[in-house]
C-alpha cells in the first residue's frame, strides 16, 4: 500500500484497499476523498491537465457537492494546474513527498482499524516510545547509548 502511494500509483493503492476490504473506502468517505485528491495531484504533477480536469469533474466534484467542506481542498489541488511550475506555486507543498506519505498513513490506519487492530503499527509506536525515553534521559543529563538510527538499530555514545 505504502509503496503504491509512495510511487504515486493511487489507483493501485485503491485497488489494494478494495482487495483487502471493499467497505473500508465506503465507510470512510474522508479517506476516499483524500485518495481521489491525491490522484488529482499526481495527474497535475505529471502535467496532464486534461486528465486532471476530467478526473476532478467525474470523481471529486460530486463529493464536493455532497460535502461543501471538501471544496477548499479540491480547489487547492486544482489550482496546481494554473501554474507553469506547480512545485514553486503557493500550493506547491501539495506535491511534497509528505503529502503522499500522509495519504498512505491514513490508508494504513483505516486498513488496520478495519481489521480490528490499533491504528498505529506496534513498531512505529515502539520507536516513538524509544525516542521519548531518550529525550527524557537526555533532559536529565543521563549518559546512555542513544539509538542513532531506528531503521538499523545503530547506537552512539557510551
Overview of the structural elements:
This protein has eight helices and two strands, in the order H-H-H-H-H-H-H-H-E-E. It has a two-stranded antiparallel ribbon. By secondary structure, the chain is mainly α. Strand 1 and strand 2 form a beta hairpin.
What tags apply to this protein structure?
single chain, 158 residues, mainly alpha, 2 domains, two-stranded antiparallel sheet, 8 helices, 63% helix, globular
Write the layout of secondary structure elements.
Layout: H1 2-6, H2 10-20, H3 23-27, H4 29-45, H5 49-66, H6 71-78, H7 97-114, H8 122-139, E1 146-149, E2 154-156
Helix pairs in contact: 4-5, 4-6, 4-7
Strand arrangement across the biggest beta sheet: 1-2
Q: Taking all residues together, what is the mean pLDDT?
A: 85
Q: What's the number of helices?
A: 8
- The figure for the number of domains is 2
- What is the CA-CA span between the terminal residues? 39 Å
Beta strand %: under 5%
Ranges with pLDDT <50 over ≥5 residues? Answer: none
What is the CA-atom radius of gyration, in angstroms?
20 Å
Amino acid at each position: 500500500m505504502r509503496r503504491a502511494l509512495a510511487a504515486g500509483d493511487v489507483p493501485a493503492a485503491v485497488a489494494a484497499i478494495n482487495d483487502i476490504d471493499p467497505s473500508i473506502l465506503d465507510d470512510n468517505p474522508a479517506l476516499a476523498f483524500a485518495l481521489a485528491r491525491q490522484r488529482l495531484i499526481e495527474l497535475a504533477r505529471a502535467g496532464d491537465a486534461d486528465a486532471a480536469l476530467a478526473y476532478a469533474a467525474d470523481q471529486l466534484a460530486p463529493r464536493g457537492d455532497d460535502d461543501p467542506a471538501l471544496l477548499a481542498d479540491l480547489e487547492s489541488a486544482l489550482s496546481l494546474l494554473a501554474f507553469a511550475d506547480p512545485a514553486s506555486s503557493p500550493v506547491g507543498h501539495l506535491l511534497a513527498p509528505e503529502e503522499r506519505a500522509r495519504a498512505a498513513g491514513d490508508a494504513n490506519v483505516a486498513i488496520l482499524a478495519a481489521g480490528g487492530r490499533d491504528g498505529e503499527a506496534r513498531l512505529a509506536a515502539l520507536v516513538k516510545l524509544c525516542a521519548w525515553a531518550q529525550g527524557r534521559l537526555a533532559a536529565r543529563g543521563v549518559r546512555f547509548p542513544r539509538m542513532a538510527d531506528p531503521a538499523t538499530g545503530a547506537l552512539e555514545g557510551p
